[in-house]
Design a protein that fits this description.
heterodimer; A: alpha+beta; OB fold (Dihydrolipoamide Acetyltransferase, E2P); 6-stranded antiparallel β-sheet; 3-stranded antiparallel β-sheet; 3 helices; 18% helix; B: alpha+beta; Gyrase A, domain 2; Alpha-Beta Plaits; Elongation Factor Tu (Ef-tu), domain 3; 6-stranded mixed β-sheet; 6-stranded antiparallel barrel; 8 helices; 19 strands; globular
Chain lengths: 127, 372
């Protein structure tokens, strides 16, 4: 998946939408900023999530950070192999580094998310 | 505080130009890391790390009563110090609460114009300690100067630190004992060098004129790179000191904590002397009920961080003051305060990490001790 084809939340999650299923992960910029990842807690399958609410946690040597749900819906699948292979978040954040698939709630969309160009601009401003 | 009003060390622009991720630390713009915290940590444990610690406060106290005043302010005897000696001590209030932990140097300082005492204080406490000194000095005869911005301070730490510095320094560092310091010439600059540090490794700390800092730092960085080391940010400084079991003010030390419960008895001398907080500290020595500082070892990957509750059989017994994932031991380590009945090494406790409970074993401190 090319980042240009994805949508982004201001809290650094990416979304790839296929029908009504959103595949979700965290951006290369976020992984770079976190550095030294040691732990990831996946969301529970079946969990109902809302945009801008914590979905799961990722922990680096320095700190623990929330991963926020970028869309509204239900977690239907998680990347079970990810917690034991956190290096793929850095190596391949937009393919093998996916975290969860979320089935969009009725009426939910992704219009509130940024395209890649707008997200790049935000990252440049954050330094 | 905005980026514009943050204080800057003489090395600030070097850090920013070399990948340093700059953050606000105690009102200073400081590099938290350059690349990876784990790599910087390991470089210090296996080779040599360079730390800009210019944000720490450097106070000069000079005059007939300088020694007597410091002796009244800190938990160890100062009046018997000889030139070249360095002592770690606590500045306490009358209740025995720690106002700061400091290094006191009996020195001739880089300017050459002062030969008295130097005191290195935490950046976060500098103004408080300057105010405390002003409040306590009365009519004692001495000059007090906050020389923080006139000088820079660089720590060089790691098993190859002394070997590296020996090649750049006119004096023979290998012969210098730990907790001593002297004026010397390093990279053609006059500096004060002490065998002190905050990582658990061998090495030392350099105090130089602000104007010499970049020149010295660049030469040290070039040499360190040859040895597999390099600059280290505040994040790895924190993981290193945590492994070494060293307290950090604002975490393990505060005005609500006395030196005895912090386990810093070695830095307290009550015998035949008076100092501020003495009676309260003497009482604390007889008090078997106060919470005490412990180390905690956890399994898995999740670190117990500051504020996490510590329990024993569902009963709260204390809280975590610092915690991280230890790069050396590849498991979480933490320090905290617990009731004395829960403090024996080997005791199994529980830590509440953001709502989930994890077993933690009380461990003797330090976690890490370098091979001698």
């Amino acid at each position: 998946m090319k980042p240009e084809d994805l949508k982004f939340a201001k809290t650094h999650e990416w979304v790839a939408l296929d029908g009504d299923v959103a595949t979700v992960g965290i951006s290369a910029f976020a992984v770079e900023a976190l550095t030294d990842l040691v732990f990831m807690e996946l969301p529970a399958v079946g969990k109902q999530v809302e945009p801008e609410e914590p979905m799961c946690e990722v922990e680096s040597v320095k700190a623990v950070s929330d991963v926020y749900a970028p869309v509204a819906g239900e977690v239907i699948e998680v990347n079970e192999s990810l917690p034991d292979n956190l290096e793929v978040l850095g190596e391949d954040p937009y393919e093998k580094g996916w975290i969860a698939k979320i089935k969009l709630a009725a009426g939910a969309g992704i219009d509130h998310l940024m395209d890649h160009a707008a997200y790049e601009k935000q990252c440049a401003e954050e330094g | 505080m905005t980026a514009e009003t943050l204080q800057r060390t003489p090395l600030h622009d070097w850090h920013a130009a070399h990948g340093g991720r700059m953050v606000d630390f105690a009102g200073w713009s400081m590099p938290v890391q350059y690349s990876s915290i784990v790599e910087e940590h390991q470089a210090t444990r296996t080779a040599v790390g360079l730390f800009d610690i210019s944000h720490m406060g450097r106070l000069l106290l000079d005059g007939p009563d300088a020694g007597a005043l410091i002796d009244r302010l800190v938990t160890r005897r100062i009046l018997d110090m000889n030139p070249g000696q360095v002592r770690y001590a606590l500045v306490c209030n009358a209740d025995g609460g720690v106002l700061d932990d400091v290094l006191v140097y009996q020195v001739t300082l880089p300017s050459g114009e002062l030969s008295g005492y130097g005191m290195v204080v935490n950046a976060s406490n500098r103004e408080k300690i300057v105010g405390w000194i002003a409040q306590q000095r009365g009519d004692m005869d001495l000059k007090v100067q906050d020389a923080t911005h006139e000088y820079a301070m660089i720590a060089v730490q790691g098993p190859r630190a002394i070997e590296m510095l020996d090649g750049l320094c006119e004096c023979e560092l290998t012969a210098m004992r730990y907790y001593t310091g002297n004026m010397t010439t390093l990279c053609d600059c006059r500096v004060f060098f002490s065998r002190t540090g905050y990582t658990g490794e061998d090495g030392g700390e350099i105090i130089c004129d602000a104007g010499s800092a970049v020149h010295i730092w660049e030469q040290l960085a070039a040499k360190a790179a040859e040895l597999g080391g390099g600059p280290v940010g505040l994040a790895a400084r924190d993981t290193l000191r945590l492994e070494a079991g060293m307290p950090l003010y604002g975490h393990e030390l505060s005005e609500e904590i006395n030196p005895i419960q912090a386990g810093l008895d070695f830095a307290v001398n009550l015998r035949n002397r008076e100092f501020i907080g003495r009676d309260a500290i003497a009482a604390a020595q007889r008090d078997n009920g106060q919470p005490v500082r412990v180390g905690l070892l956890l399994d898995g990957k999740r670190a117990a961080r500051e504020g996490a509750a510590i329990l024993r059989d569902d009963e709260p017994v204390g809280h975590v003051t610092s915690g991280t994932f230890s790069p050396t031991f590849e498991r979480p380590i933490a320090m905290g305060y617990v009731k004395p009945t829960a403090a024996a090494p080997g005791t199994t406790l529980t830590v509440d990490i953001r709502g989930s409970r994890h077993p933690a074993q009380v461990s003797p401190l330090p976690f890490y001790q370098r091979g001698k």
